Amino acid sequence: MHAQVDIAVQATARSGQAPTWDVGTETLLWTDPRAGEVHRYRPGHANATMTLQQRTGGAKPRSRGGLVLHLQEGIALFDAHGEQRTWLVYWAREGVQAGATMVDRKGRLWATTMREDESGDGWLARVNPDGSAGVIIKDLRAGFGLATSPDDSRFYIADAGTSRIEVLDFDVNAGLMGNRRTLCEVGGQPSGLAVATDGSLWTAVRDKGELHRYTPSGELAETIPLPAQRPTNLCFGGQDLHDLYITTAREDLPSPTSTDGTVLTLRTTTEGLRAFAFTG
């Protein structure tokens, strides 16, 4: 029996991305980078939209209120009203766009970049709350997913360009990692990562229209077909963190349907890890 997949937001996103469950407000943040939009969805209510002047890869909550945004040109802070933008890190490069974004338990931001054609030369950067930043990994092709294990001992990267999920040993206190290796070959293009409290990893496979669930050792445990052709990212949400939200895309599809570009949801038996707020 297939899992029941429903439509949470009846959107027509060009390429929905970066779903994040904001625990403080019990809302879902998600973006449409190609449209320059940040969305906030409250289950059972309307989906609010904020339009920006450039591509927006990710939007994460701040502990001080407002949002931290991963824009095409760098990392910026927005106040609680979304009216004032302050650049925290500016790294604009020709042909480079925003990739994945994650906040760790210590309140640091992790962000990837990539070439627009996903040909290589992307990097993973660590952005500290005080605005200091550094490149940690320099050779990502299409790093579309970042996550840590429940005990923070592992750091995961889903690279659609290599069709792999990689794992590194992670020191969350120091914000350092090493011993990079392949956790699993996905057999498709992994896009986004969500980790459950039991250590299992979920990823959207954007070129196959399905979800994969992997064990902590990298074994494929479950495949769930989706009613959308191009899933792009996912996160756990809801009051008990048992709801999986999946963003999708409709741009560049030869024959998009009414479900392409929506935000999907399905109920899981596993509880997801909660997302953290940026402390800068």
Structural commentary:
By secondary structure, this protein is an all-beta fold. The protein has strands spanning 5-9, 17-22, 27-32, 37-41, 47-51, 56-61, 67-71, 74-78, 85-90, 96-103, 109-115, 122-127, 133-140, 143-148, 154-159, 164-171, 176-185, 190-195, 201-205, 210-214, 220-225, 231-237, 243-248, 263-267. The strands form six sheets. Strands 1-24-23-22 form a four-stranded antiparallel β-sheet, with no helix packed on it.
What would a concise description of this structure say?
With 280 residues, this protein is mostly beta strands.
Regarding quaternary structure, what we see is: single chain
Number of helices: 0
Mean pLDDT: 94
Q: Give the distance, in angstroms, between the N- and C-terminal Cα atoms.
A: 45 Å
Order of helices and strands: EEEEEEEEEEEEEEEEEEEEEEEE
**Total of domains:** 1
Distinctive features:
4-stranded antiparallel sheet; Neuraminidase; globular; 280 residues; 24 strands; mainly beta
Write the layout of secondary structure elements.
Blueprint: E1 5-9, E2 17-22, E3 27-32, E4 37-41, E5 47-51, E6 56-61, E7 67-71, E8 74-78, E9 85-90, E10 96-103, E11 109-115, E12 122-127, E13 133-140, E14 143-148, E15 154-159, E16 164-171, E17 176-185, E18 190-195, E19 201-205, E20 210-214, E21 220-225, E22 231-237, E23 243-248, E24 263-267
Antiparallel strand pairs: 1-24, 2-3, 3-4, 4-5, 6-7, 7-8, 8-9, 10-11, 11-12, 12-13, 14-15, 15-16, 16-17, 18-19, 19-20, 20-21, 22-23, 23-24
